[in-house]
Amino acid sequence: MSASDAHRAIETVFRIEAPKLIGGLVRLTRDIGRAEELAQDALVAALAQWPQDGVPRNPGAWLMQAAKHRAIDALRRDKLLQRKHEELGHDSETDALAMPDLDAALDDEVGDDLLRLIFIACHPVLSTEARLALTLRLLGGLTTEEIARAFLVPEPTMAQRLVRAKKALADARVPFEVPHGVELAQRLASVLEVVYLIFNEGYAATAGHDWVRPALCEEAMRLGRILAERAPLEPEVHGLVALMELQASRLRARLGPDGEPILLLDQNRARWDQLLIGRGLKALERAQRLAGAAPGPYLLQAALAACHARARTAEETDWRRIAALYAVLAAINPSPIVELNRAVAVSMAEGPAAGLVLVEALADEPALRGYHLLPSVHGDLLAKLGRHGEAAAAFDRAASLTRNAKERALLEERAATARGAAATG
């Protein structure tokens, strides 16, 4: 194996193994920054040794062993070993007596380090931006440069965001554990929010030149599957997995030849990924069995996505059921965006005039003041009703609000079409 091939193999293995490695090290050191440093030290050791000796049969175990040795050295050097024993009420006679306990601490599989790490990265003490960045760093293995590029901020800004996030967790003395009881429900909501925000940024990028970023969708789905495997009785976890897989099934059909957006009703459904649809429907069924008569917001959104997935053509879509599901979602999770989506469903089920009444009722909603999809939907309904001049103005407004170049081009095109229709009408 050439040195370049070995380096690529090492980087791939490290990205896969890093979350588990960091999780085990955080359990020992109770310090995310230190755990990351130790994991990076193990990577440096691999880069030095593997090109000569070859990639080991169990690379994850090799990296953990290398990190373990460095963790022990670090604990000796910083006298953290003595502090750990004092916290446990032990008297440390010699470092040699302590080493087996350290080994056991790193090898202990009681609990789940990945699950604990997800709950730490998504802790409510952090801002939403910090939770997103830290989750992609610790669980996704993305570099600071990659995360900065994904969220269109300068790399130094993202680096400072990550440093502040780790400091905030240390200052808050966040325990390395999976919460229980009432706290579990509250913390799980934060975790699911972060995962879905990552997915949405990939599914419909808020800014930049690309409308979709499939890599972010893949990362969010991977995190969702980890959660589903390690929290198998939580219906909302399976609901989120179902929602993401059903939406991701459309990714190939959402873009035209030049990367231009293709809206849902105009998509070639033969390009939808049937494997992802099957997996999403299966996850939805599991979520529904677990939830019973008390569906949560992710489960309901997955049920909405399933209505589209089951329709072989746009005309076969059950818009009345979609409108009814949005009404249930609005009842348990009130939101102006949910109401806007319900208005779209009502317009499809009962006609554009019925939807327009609901959309115009949202015109003064503060939360939607800068939301480009409100004037976009408004323009669409006005155009369907033949009010093309008003529709053009609404599309112009929507184009001025979006920060995504591809979406802006689509909205400007729709505005021009509406103006043309108004001129000829």
Automatic annotation (TrEMBL):
It comes from the Bacteria. Residues 187-287 form the DUF6596 domain. Residues 17-79 form the RNA polymerase sigma-70 region domain. One of its GO terms (biological process) is DNA-templated transcription initiation. Pfam families: DUF6596, Sigma70_r2, Sigma70_r4_2. GO terms for molecular function: DNA binding; sigma factor activity. This is RNA polymerase subunit sigma-24. It comes from Bosea vaviloviae.
